[in-house]
Amino acid sequence: MKLAKHVSVSFDESGYKITRYLNLGSKDGFEPQPDIASLASSSTAVLGEALISLLAETA
């Protein structure tokens, strides 16, 4: 499914790290891309805004 999107979010003492995955199609799955965002915030509102922005970019 070429329209599917995938990101992972991890959290440590320095804040959130978001990794985007490139959709290679139903046969090849997803390939991780370099970490594109490191948020020096533990705010879930900041995280939510970053995720919405990221997913809109990959449309």
Estimate what percentage of residues fall within beta strands: 35-45%
Structural category is alpha+beta
Q: Mean pLDDT, nearest integer?
A: 81
Can you tell me the overall shape? elongated
The N- and C-terminal alpha carbons lie at a distance of 13 Å
Helical proportion, percent range: 10-25%
Q: Which segments are poorly predicted (pLDDT under 50) over 5 or more consecutive residues? A: none
How would a crystallographer describe the biggest sheet?
4 strands, antiparallel
Layout of secondary structure:
Layout: E1 6-12, E2 15-23, E3 30-32, E4 37-39, H1 44-57
Antiparallel strand pairs: 1-2, 2-3, 2-4
Task: Write up what this structure looks like.
With 59 residues, this protein is of the alpha+beta class. It contains one helix and four strands. Strands 1, 2, 3 and 4 form a four-stranded antiparallel beta sheet that branches. A hairpin with a 2-residue loop joins strand 1 (6-12) and strand 2 (15-23). The two termini are 13 Å apart.
